[in-house]
Amino acid sequence: MNVANATMETGTAAVSVRGVSMIYPGPVHALENIDLDFPAGQLTSLLGPSGCGKTTLLKIIAGLLEPASGTVMVNGKKVEGPGPERAFVFQDFALLPWASVIRNVAFGLELRGIPTSEREAIAEKYIGEVGLRGFEQKYPHELSGGMRQRVGLARALSVRADVLLMDEPFSAVDEQTRRKFQEDLLQLISVEKRTFLFVTHSIEEAVYLSARIVLLSPRPGKVWKIIEPSLSRKLSPDQIRREPGYLDTVESIWQNLKDYVE
Amino acid sequence: MELYGYRIPKFASLLVWALIWEIIGQAHVTILLPPLSHCIMRLFEIVPTETFWLAMGITAQAFTLGMAISILVGVPVGVIMGRAPLVDRLLLPWVSLFVSAPLTALVPVIMALFGFGETTIVLTVVLFAIWIIILDARAGSRGISPSLMEMAKSYGASRWQAFTKIYLWAALPEILAGIRLGLVRAVKGVIIGQLIVSVIGFGYLFEIYSTNFLMEHMWALLLVLFAFAYLLDAGMGELERRIDYYSAARG
Hints:
The complex is a heterodimer.
Chain A: E1 2-3, E2 13-24, E3 28-39, E4 43-47, H1 54-62, E5 69-74, E6 77-78, E7 86-89, H2 101-105, H3 107-111, H4 116-129, H5 145-158, E8 163-167, H6 175-192, E9 195-200, H7 203-209, E10 212-217, E11 222-228, H8 237-242, H9 244-257
Parallel strand pairs in A: 4-9, 4-10, 7-8, 8-9
Antiparallel strand pairs in A: 1-11, 2-3, 2-5, 5-6, 10-11
Chain B: E1 2-3, E2 6-7, H1 12-26, H2 36-46, H3 50-83, H4 85-100, H5 107-114, H6 118-142, H7 146-154, H8 159-170, H9 172-197, H10 201-211, H11 215-242, H12 244-249
Helix pairs in contact in B: 2-11, 3-4, 3-6, 3-9, 3-10, 4-6, 5-6, 6-9, 9-10, 9-11, 10-11
C-alpha cells in the first residue's frame, strides 16, 4: 500500500480538478478547495462517509453542477457543461422505461443523430461486453436491478467517452449480484482502457476495484488521503478477497474512517 | 359479489334498473318516461335514418376536431408548464379557474362571437376538454425523475430532444389519464354546444323531439349518446392499462 501525493504530474491525468469548492444554499460547504488528478486508463474511487460531497464532486466533473469556484479540466480542456468525452452511470440507472434494452444502450448515440443501423451495431457490441446478449429486445421492467445497471453501463460505453463517471452504480443492487458485477467490471476495465471515476461508500468495493482511492473527509469535503492498493490483478477474484494486501488496505481505511462514523 | 352462494355478474344491477324503468313506463306514471322496450324499438327505427347519420356525422366531426385541438395544444402547454416555472406562474391561475368553472355559461358568448355554425361547436368542445388535459400533462411532467433529466443533460440532449424523446413519454401515463377525462368532458361539450345552438347535429334532433314531445325518440337518442361516452371512456381505460407497466416502473 502506498500513500501518494495529492497531485501528480498532469501529463498522465485524464481529469484534473483545481481548487474546486462547492457551497449549497444554507449555506452548506459541500466541498472545499479540492485539488485532484485522475490518471488515464485507470479506475479511481472517491470514498468517504455520507455527506463528504463525493457525488457532488462527480457531478461537477460531469458538468451537471457548477462549482462555486475552481476549474475542472478533462483531457486538457476546461469543463463548462456535459461533453461527449464524459459519460455518466447513474445510481438509480436512469433508463427509459418505455424503451427496449438496445434503444436504451444506443440512446446517447441517438441523441447525437447517428443512424439507427450504425448505432444499433455499436450498442450490440457493448450489450455483449456487459453480458446482456439475448436481452436486446427486453424492457427495463423485465430485468433485475443488476441487469438494469449493466444497461446503464453499456449506454455509457457506447458513446465512446474517454472518461466514465460512475455514481454509486452498485448501491441499488443486491450483494451477490454486486460481487459478480464488480468482477465483470474489472475485466471490462482491462479490456476497455478508459478512465473510470467511481463513487462508492463501500470500502471493500473501493479496494477491490481501484488503482487509486481518494479518501474524502466530510463537511466540508476535503481530500484527506490518497491510497494505492497494491493488489496482484493476476489472482482470481476469490483469491484477491483473501489476500493479506487486500485485507490490510480495507482494515487501514476503516481505521481512518472510523472517527467520522457515529 | 355473491348472493345466497350465487355469483352475481357486474352488469346485473343494470338489468335491475332496466326492469324498474320498464315497469314504471308500463304503469304510465308519467308521460316523460315511456317504457324502456319502446325506447329501444324506437332506437332501431331512428338509427337507420339519414337524419340520424347526418347528425352523427356533424357531431363526430366537431368532436374529433375539438378533441384534436385540445390534445395538440393542451399536451405541449401542460408539459411546458410542468417544466418552466415562469410559464406555469403565468397560466396556472387561468387553467385552474377554467377546469372547475361552469363552462356552459360561456357557450352563448362563443355563439355570439362565432355564430350558429360548426366553429362554435368545435370551440365548445375545446373549452370543455382542454383544461383537464393541460393540468394532467403538467402533473405528469412535474413528476419526471430528476435523474432522467440529468441523464438527458449529460448525454447532450437538446431542449427539443429532451421534450420529444423524454418528457412527453415520461409523462405519458398522466397525459393519457388527462385525455380520458378530456374525452368525457368533450362529449358533454359537443352535446351542450349543439343543444344551445340547437340548429345543428343532435341538438337539432333534441330540439325537434322535445318540442313535439317525442319522449321515446329522445330517450333512444340519449341511450345512444350514453353508450358512446361510456365506450370512449372504457377504450381509453384499456389503453392506459397497456402502459401501466412503465408508469409503475418510473421513479
